[in-house]
Specification:
Largest interface: A-B, 23 and 26 residues
Radius of gyration of chain B: 23 Å
Mean pLDDT of chain B: 87
CATH superfamily of the largest domain in chain B: P-loop containing nucleotide triphosphate hydrolases
Distance between the termini of chain A: 23 Å
CATH class of the largest domain in chain B: Alpha Beta
Order of helices and strands of chain B: EEEHEHEHHHEHEHEEHEHEEHEH
Number of helices of chain B: 11
Shape of chain A: elongated
Number of strands of chain A: 6
Largest sheet of chain B: 6 strands, mixed
Order of helices and strands of chain A: HHEHHHEHEEHHEEHHHHHHHHHH
Largest sheet of chain A: 4 strands, mixed
Structural class of chain A: mainly alpha
Low-confidence stretches of chain A: 89-93
Number of helices of chain A: 18
Strand order of the largest sheet of chain A: 2-1-3-4
CATH topology of the largest domain in chain B: Rossmann fold
Low-confidence stretches of chain B: none
Structural class of chain B: alpha/beta
Strand content of chain B: 25-35%
Oligomer: heterodimer
Strand content of chain A: 5-15%
Shape of chain B: globular
Number of domains of chain A: 2
Number of strands of chain B: 13
Distance between the termini of chain B: 37 Å
Radius of gyration of chain A: 31 Å
């Protein structure tokens, strides 16, 4: 037992007292903070107002445009867009980009210019000169027949690549023209607005006990948890493998085996590295909780209503339990591979199957997020190899009955017992085999004979 | 037998790997406080035997008794094993590695620290304590590995090729360290290909080849049993005498002298007499015993035939 503890201490210190660990651990919260805080900061930055001249021979469109491009109106729109972006993770890439555009602060300053009694060519020439002379950033030409099918709205800008301004302006023109059409048809615009208003559609999950909860925020949290467990398992699994290969490659294994039992050495390694992983995960989860709180305050302060997912201490305990289950499953597979191969590069080729299993588990977690109560979600959150990722996701999306969690923990613990037994047998023979990589039939022989 | 005079007893030990027999029916014992040479060519079964002694693997049949007992974790703490293939953690500080190896032998940390300082000082490596393995030369790494074998003050030392990779100055240095350990009544099993070193250090030897024992006993006995009459000769003339097949079986020419193996039944006195009679000028005539190297080569050839 004393030797086992010596191994645990050795492996733990070897990982935790390294710069890479410190940097990796700190970097994650910093990146996460970046995601939470940077958009909030970006809202508050307003670019230089775009100086724009609007030439409207009809005199009908311009006032409406001016009204809808006023700064207060734009700010309101941007807030709405941000809220949509945060609450809908299923949005396509294009939609996300459009929202990003709307989030950017943008404002307009209207330049006075009278185009009356001037030919279109003259107007264009004069305005182009103003742009060259930097008196103006852009101008918009509204056709005389603003509603004719062939009517063309022309926008000229000094900043040709400024798609933000272009998009905002396009939306505003369409809105202005639409409301003018309504006015011309003698339809009360305010009535239309009232009648076509979107309903307030709030998605809430209902758990088994009938409690309501906010589903949007749970989705995000479930996704983050799934990703976090997937990444840590992959990183720490490979860490185990390279530690095993190092001891084999440098022949330290022979000295170790003459001092302690191979099983003690292997378990000590698994436990030590597992504790290091747990340390890192704890730091991350604590900082995630703090950041979520901080982010929510920021959003609320910015006038947005973001619910924090309801995460109980029991849930956090279960995440740690599932991390450990997953860790021991994958770490013993990686230890087994490490004992088989002769170099880290060779081990890299063999780590494809466990990495594949991890990835499948991660992909299953999307299915679980969409429908936590389907029979697919049930099976993948019970199955060994997948449960360590899918069950925490499911717990967050919608906590399943206790018996299912219990069954899942039991089955995965049995899988660990079997894998550790297997790995230990390969370990004690493989670690002393130098020179060539063991073949699968050879490994099978070790397992049966040892 | 009691522990006072026998440290290790190997009895009829065999070990097979599939169809390959690594060790067959091997028996020997190592007396306490002596240096025991475990000799044999590559692939003879030395490493397999040593691994069974230290409890890394176990014999298929036969018995190994250490300090009068079967091998156990407690007994492993009394062995210091320096494997032939050995290494250190590449990116770890020397002190941390030594502490870990000591902890695995149940040495309390304070005691371990004291001994680490003592041995680093003894090996003239004190200033490398906080350095990483990759900063050390190969010879220095060898010495660190040696320290890791003696940190827990073991009663039995098993050194497999301990001097490989060391320059002559350091070999001499390490031989002195081993001699010091012997003076402290440690039992030392010493496996090597360097017959000259073995001849200098060992009290007893065993020679194995092709998984079997070839010859064993005290160095003196082995040499005596290898009953060859060798004469180191430096002379001018007398060639006809040397070519008399009744007297001389074989001549090995060295740069300025000859090594003469006497024919069966011939004795050195009659050779000397005949040489003087033939008028040869003799500047050196010395009866020598076979070197361990000669015995090694001869016996290995014999068993391979």
């Amino acid at each position: 037992m004393r030797k086992f503890l010596a191994v645990v201490k050795h492996e733990y210190k070897k990982i935790v007292l390294k710069w890479a660990f410190l940097i990796g651990t700190l970097l994650f919260p910093v990146i996460a903070a970046g995601f939470a805080v940077v958009p909030a900061i970006i809202f508050s930055i307003k670019g230089e107002p775009t100086r724009i001249a609007i030439v409207d021979p009809t005199g009908k469109i311009e006032p409406r445009l001016r009204e809808s491009l006023a700064s207060e109106k734009l700010l309101e729109k941007s807030r709405q867009a941000t809220k949509d972006a945060v609450t809908d993770i299923n949005a396509s890439g294009e939609e996300k980009m459009q929202r990003g555009v709307q989030q950017l602060g943008e404002s307009f300053a209207f330049a006075e210019y009278s185009g009356a009694e001037k030919s279109p060519e003259q107007i264009r020439r004069e305005l182009n000169e103003k742009i060259i002379g930097k008196e103006l950033d852009a101008y918009l030409l509204i056709p005389k027949e603003f509603d004719a099918p062939v009517a063309k709205y022309e926008f000229f800008s000094r900043k040709a690549g400024d798609f933000v301004t272009e998009r905002i302006l396009k939306d505003a023109v369409n809105e202005a023209v639409r409301s003018q059409r309504l006015a011309d048809a003698r339809i009360d615009e305010s009535k239309i607005k009232t009648l076509s208003r979107n309903v307030d559609f709030e998605a809430k999950g209902v758990d088994e006990k009938g409690n309501e909860k906010d589903s949007d925020s749970s989705f995000i949290a479930a996704f983050i948890i799934g990703l976090m467990i997937y990444i840590t398992l992959a990183i720490y699994g490979q860490m185990i493998m390279s530690a095993v290969v190092e001891e084999k490659e440098t022949r330290i294994a022979e000295i170790l085996f003459s001092s302690a039992k191979p099983f003690e050495l292997m378990m000590g390694k698994l436990v030590g590295v597992g504790l290091a992983g747990l340390t890192q995960l704890s730091i991350w989860i604590i900082s995630a909780v703090i950041l979520a709180g901080f982010g929510a305050t920021m959003f609320t302060a910015a006038g947005m209503d973001i619910a924090i997912p309801n995460i109980t201490p029991l849930m956090i305990l279960l995440f740690f339990i599932y991390f450990l289950l997953g860790f021991f499953i994958y770490a013993s597979i990686f230890a087994l591979i490490g004992a088989m191969v002769t170099s880290v590069q060779e081990g890299g080729q063999f780590s494809f199957p466990p990495i594949m299993l991890l990835l499948i588990g991660f992909y299953f977690s999307f299915a679980v997020i969409r429908d936590p109560n389907s029979s697919l979600s049930f099976w993948v959150s019970i199955a060994p190899f997948f449960a360590p990722i899918t069950m925490p996701v499911r717990i967050l999306a919608e906590t399943p009955p206790i018996w299912q969690i219990g069954l899942s923990i039991l089955i995965n613990s049995l899988a660990i017992a079997a894998l550790v037994w297997l790995a230990a047998r390969v370990y004690r023979v493989g670690m002393l085999m130098y020179g060539k990589r063991a073949t699968i039939p050879e490994v099978w022989k070790w397992i049966r004979q040892a | 037998m009691t522990e006072q005079n026998t440290t290790l007893k190997v009895e009829n030990v065999s070990k097979r790997f599939g169809d390959f027999t690594a060790v067959e029916n091997l028996s020997f014992s190592v007396k306490s406080g002596r240096v025991f040479g475990f000799l044999g060519p590559n692939g003879a079964g030395k490493t397999t035997t040593i691994r069974m002694i230290v409890g890394i693997t176990f014999p298929d049949s036969g018995n190994i008794e250490l300090f009068g007992d079967r091998i156990s974790t407690e007994l492993q703490n009394r062995i210091g094993y320096l494997p032939e293939e050995r290494g250190l953690y590449k990116k770890m500080k020397i002190q941390d590695q030594l502490r870990y190896f000591a902890a695995l032998k149940d040495v309390p940390q304070a005691e371990a620290d004291r001994r680490i300082d003592f041995w680093l000082d003894r090996m003239q490596l004190s200033e490398w304590k906080k350095k990483k393995t990759t900063d050390l030369s190969k010879g220095m790494q060898q010495k660190i590995q040696f320290i890791s074998t003696v940190l827990h003050d073991p009663d039995l030392l098993i050194l497999d090729e301990p001097f490989s990779g060391l320059d002559p100055v350091n070999v001499e240095f390490m031989i002195n360290v081993v001699a010091e350990l012997k003076a402290r009544h440690k039992t030392i099993i010493f496996s090597t290909h360097l017959m000259e070193t073995a001849e200098r250090l060992c009290d007893d030897i065993i020679l194995i080849n092709k998984s079997r024992k070839v010859v064993g006993g005290s160095l003196r006995e082995v040499k005596a049993s290898f009953g060859k009459n060798l004469i180191s000769l430096r002379c001018e003339g007398g060639l006809n005498v040397l070519h008399d097949a009744n007297l001389v079986a074989r001549i090995v020419e060295h740069s300025d002298e000859k090594e003469i193996e006497l024919a069966a039944g011939a004795d050195s006195q009659s050779l000397l007499k005949r040489l003087i009679e033939s008028g040869a000028t003799i500047t050196k005539f010395e009866q020598i015993e076979a070197s361990l190297n000669d015995i090694f080569i001869e016996k290995v050839k014999e068993t391979n035939a």
